[in-house]
Structures are given as structure tokens and as C-alpha cells.
Amino acid sequence: MPSITTRISPSLERRLLQRGVGALVAGRATCHDCGRTPLVGELIHHYASGRMACALCKRVRREDPVSSELVRGSEFGHAVRITDRPAAAA
Ligand SMILES: [Zn+2]
Fold first, then answer.
1. How far is the CA of 54 from the centre of ligand 1 (A)?
2. Least confident of 3-17, 24-38, 39-53, 60-74
3. Cα 23 to middle of ligand 1, angstroms
4. Distance, CA 30 to ligand 1 centroid (Å)?
5. CATH of the domain at 55
6. Domain limits at 37?
7. Would the pTM of this model clear 0.70, i.e. be above it?
């Protein structure tokens, strides 16, 4: 009896792999300057132009970033959370 690996055609396997890699690439943020995907624990910087730069490319940019954030791993989820809450009324 053939195993499952011999029953899947190589072209189907290749298409599924390309689709999976494409989905991963589409969901990640990359540095505008070097194209690198920032590492977990690295600071990334957002600029007024809407561009994002990694910590390495920040050094060569003349403008100051509007905001910076820490790249978190998947254990923190992929949703954007607001952590800066306004002070409660006294
Ligand atoms: Zn970069």
C-alpha cells in the first residue's frame, strides 16, 4: 500500500507549499529600507510617512520616528492591543 507521500503529486505539493509560504509572507511586517523581517524582541520604528524601519535602519534615517514598538512573539497573539489608557478621572 503506497504511503500518503507517494500519492500526492509533486505539482500539488509544490502549489500547497507556495500558497502556505505566500500566506506567511503576506502577514508579516518588513522593514521598508532593507526588507528584513524584524526579530522577536527587536524595536521597530514607525514614521510619519507610514513607513516602518527596523532598529538597524533607524540609525541611517534622518527623521525621528513617530512611535516605536517591541516585536512580540506569537505567544502574545497577533492582535493589536491598546496598552496606554487615559488616566482615570479623580
Ligand atoms: Zn531595516
1. 4
2. 3-17
3. 22
4. 8
5. 2.10.110
6. 4-74
7. no
